[in-house]
Amino acid sequence: MNGYFMEPQNFSVNDGDGIRTVIFFAGCPLNCKWCANPESTLDFKRVSFNKKTCIGCGKCTEICPVGVNIDLNSPGQREKCISCRSCMDICPTNSRKKLVRIYSDSEILEIIKSQEIFYRYSNGGVTFSGGEATLQRDMLRILVNSLYDKAVDMALETSGYFDFDEVKDILTKLDLIFVDIKHMDEKKHELYTGKGNKKILENIKKMNELDVPIVVRIPVIDSVNSDEDNIKKTAVFVKENIKNPKIELLPYHNFAEEKYECLGLAKMSDNFKRPSNEFLSHLKMIIKNEGAESVSYI
Amino acid sequence: MLTKRIEDARQNYINSKPAISYERARIWTESHKKTEGESIPVRRAKAFKDTCQQLEVKIFDGEIIVGAVGEFRKCGILTPEFSWTWVDREMDNFDKRVQDPYVMTDEQRDYVRKNVFPYWKGKSLEESFLARLPEDSAKVAVDTGIVDNDSKWRQAVGEITPDYQDVLFKNGFGGIIAQAKKHMETLNEISADNLKKKEFYQSVILTSEGIISLAKRYSQKASELADSETNEDRKSELLKIAKICAKVPENPPSTFHEAIQFVWFTQLGGILSENPLALNVGRFDQFMYPYYKSDIEHNIMKKEQIQELIEVLWLKLSEWVWTISANTAEFFAGYNQFQNLTIGGKTRDGKDAVNELSYMALEATEKVMTHQPGLSVRIHQDCPKEFLDAVTHLVSKGTGFPAIHSDQAGYQMLINAGYEPEDARDWNNCGCVVPHFRKTGEWTSAVNINITAALEFALNKGVNRINGKKMGLDEADPRTFTSYEEVEKAFYRQFDNLIKHSVISTLVAQNLHREMVPRPFLSSCIENCLNEGVDLVDAGAKYNLGPVLTGIGLAVTANSLAAIKKLVYEEKCTDIETLIDAIDADWEGYDELRQKALNVPKYGNDINYVDDIAVNMANHYYKESHKYKDINGNNFNTAFMGISNYLPAGKVVGATPCGRKAREPLSEGVSPFAGTDASTPLAAMRSAARLNQDVHSGGTLLNLRLNEDLVRTKRGQSNLGSMIQAFFALGAFHVQFNTVSTETLLDAQKHPENYKDLLVRVAGYSTQFVNLSRSMQDAIIARNAHDKF
Does B789 contact A13 at a Cβ distance shorter than 8 Å? Predict the structure, then answer.
């Protein structure tokens, strides 16, 4: 079976215990304005162009059937591009790339196999991320079943936005679930992510019945959701609905800036800011005061 | 917290330039003038004894371990019997040279030119070597960067681990004298062999008397200083020194302080005898532990006091400087003496060997941040988690220390070399990454072979692209090669030829060492030499292993072969003519082809396509080298060690098919080419572990740069520990890490005054960043920093 993925990342150490491989599934039902993997919500065929590594040889323009310039992100070019990808094969520096690729389940499993020794020594494993992994649930099911039989530790990073009954069998085989609560306010959640939070909060309650440890993650962004009230409400919800209530705060970063540029996307809002460390400590205190545990994988 | 004594000494160490003392050379020369005609071992032993009796006795401020190689605290000495011509040629520029400058005054230069060098004209090891080396070997083996063994004919061998357990602490040098005398009495039968043995014992008695007398002079000096000392604390310290030096190294030590002073006197004796490379301390935490335990139990010393003594030893080991030529300094950059000190591992009977001293040694390096000793740890699969944590904690400090070794791989290397299991379990590290032992004689760094040059000769009709000289074998025009197999065959032919010349130059050097520079002092530290009456140069040790040939440029060469294979013969996107033209032009005007070459899979990314080429090359290297025997009938050994050799070796090689430009550094040890291990350190580890490391008993070296963020937290350090264990489970021998950020290194280049104590891993050893030449610094910055989370 084939699926759409971004490049798997070995040697990941912040997405669960130990040394892990993160498998990024392409595609997402949400559309968060700060998304760090924007390629996941676009046309998978979209070609990215990295100006920094380009040597300007012009090979791409020679082969392009629709006359796109070297700088794919200069005005008017994106509109012309038909994503035929012929420039990618000819580019000597890999400056024209696809960020989303088709992998078969066995290709993914092969990548994981080469890393197993590092999982064993570090209590690490595989983390399914995205995009939203459950969106390609058949592929996810194949991978999870196969790795379950190999006793490889598995974690999932999910938006929580899925049909619970469709993926329940998958979730029960996991060792850890990270699920985001991006905002407790239904309206704001919809404003920033394109979807309301009702389904997500309901799913979290259901996941609590599965006997799989859960960590609720909040991408903490100043001007969006870092206010004391929102954090407090989240903590209250987690405490009330999860057996071992754990929250990890993930302060916002703009590492994806270059990706936005390569994909020819408008820059992320300058209003999104990383909260200060002092403020983050303050938020952790709030979480603790509500009876939830503040955890970290850094 | 450092004590004031340590901090003062440390400040002196980081702020003062090493100065040259000619005192040892002066006394050595005067002694030789008086002993013309006597046997060589005896002459050398007498020169040693004279040095011990005449060298100025210097106790520096606050010292509690004493013994100086010369009149300066940070000091290098001269050994004209090995080579004086390079000193004569280079000393006017000592303070100006780029790598490892020294301070030397005009008066000093005048003196040695008038009174020391003339005596050695025609008598030095270097001159004999150059006179004897066959011309066709000399063409590739003398100051070329292609086959380089100058440290074995301009310098002494070193590469010895004194045996504290079975010889020195057991007998003291007084006991060694008694043993030698006893042995001599049994040599009644008249034979050439016995005469030689008698000479050996005579020389050992002389050197032992020498080192004892040096210690006694220190004892006396300390007493004198105590008499005039007004500070009561210092006075009692001096009296204690006087007492200790009266006892050791003549007699076995009974306290930690006596034992550690004994260790330094042994180092000092080794230094004065030959200015050695890699005079290893050995398994410090093992042979010192009984004294530690007894001191603590009997309340003789507190743990903090012992910690201070360890730190004092670290400084003493760092204050003497290995005086070397500009050429050697390129290969062994950073004032490095390679005094390796090993901790952890297993005991002789296979139990975990970690003890309090293991931790205290790690702490000492973290606190004093000296570039010596070369701190190595042995990690076995069941090693205590606390110890692994302490190791990765030190890694996180960014000093490059410790060098981390697989206990099992080291053991296996020595078993493959014919060791008994108990001895193999008792291994210590030599120099940078060579598994070694206190009963072993081995030239662990005999030759550096430039593997990439062999590829250049294969692709350029035997001619060196940089200097235009014919240095390889005749070769067909590369433009006529019609298959990858032809390219590969030509490469291996040239490679074998370089191995051959390496062997020849080593054999010539070995013969000369045997004739000219026997080593009575260091032989007296080796059990079997004493028992059998045979010097180290005559293979007197229990284990005599063949010399080690170190290959440089494994990754570059494998990458280059992969590029030719893929671009020319598989994908046929270029032809061999064009590729050769591109290399001839140093890629100028061939940007596109160069990009294609850069995109061909590179060693260090866990890609079989290119890793297999590297594995084949390493296997071939072992088999071909192992075919040859040294002067003692032992097979040559192989290594992929680091040192800083990949820089000078790169300067003499033109552009390479992998996309590397002319004169750029090659690759070190089994490390990927700088910047090309673009995936993860785990991939680099998997590539390196493929190389059947356990046959390369001269050691293998993997150097990785990690972003400091990765190891900032305890959790990050734990993950690093797991990574290391997994790497060793794959069969690898060694890994070490630089964890300083690129920003820090760039800032240190700009403001060296703020970073005088910044240690970085060069290759196989750490040294102060600001003491490296600009090109060496750039090479370190160029290493790929793995920072992915």
Answer: yes
A218 backbone φψ class: left, alpha, beta (φ>0; ψ -120 to 50): beta
Helix (H) or strand (E) segment spanning residue A34: none
Q: Measured between CB atoms, which of B681, B716, B725 is closest to A121?
A: B725
Rounded distance between C-alpha atoms, residue B403 and residue B433, angstroms: 8
Please state the separation of Cα B249 from the chain's center in Å: 26
Q: What angle do CA B62, B67, B68 make, to 5 degrees?
A: 95
Asked whether the predicted pLDDT for residue B789 surpasses 60, the reply is no
For chain B, percent of residues with pLDDT exceeding 70: 98
If one compares B325 and B257, the residue with the highest pLDDT of the two is B257
Percent of chain B with pLDDT over 90: 83
Question: With contacts defined as CB-CB under 8 Å, which chain B residues touch A120?
Answer: 726
Q: What is the ipTM of this complex?
A: 0.87
Which residues from A are below 8 Å from B710, CB to CB?
13
CA distance A205 to chain B (A): 30
Q: How far apart are CA B212 and CA B435, in angstroms?
A: 31
Below-70 pLDDT ranges, chain A = none
A2-41+100-295 carries CATH number 3.20.20.70 = yes
Going from N- to C-terminal start, the domains of chain A cover 2-41+100-295, 47-98
Interval B475-486: pLDDT, tens: 999 999 999 999
Which amino acid belongs to residue A76? G
Helices (H), chain A: 59-63, 77-80, 86-90, 105-113, 116-122, 137-149, 164-171, 186-193, 198-207, 228-241, 257-262, 277-289
Fold of A47-98: Alpha-Beta Plaits (3.30.70)
CA distance A9 to chain B (A): 8
Cα–Cα distance list, B685 to B606, B611, B679, B721 (Å): 8, 12, 11, 14
Q: Which residues of B touch A12 (CB under 8 A)?
A: 788-789
| Helix-strand-coil split of chain B, %, nearest 5 | 55, 10, 35
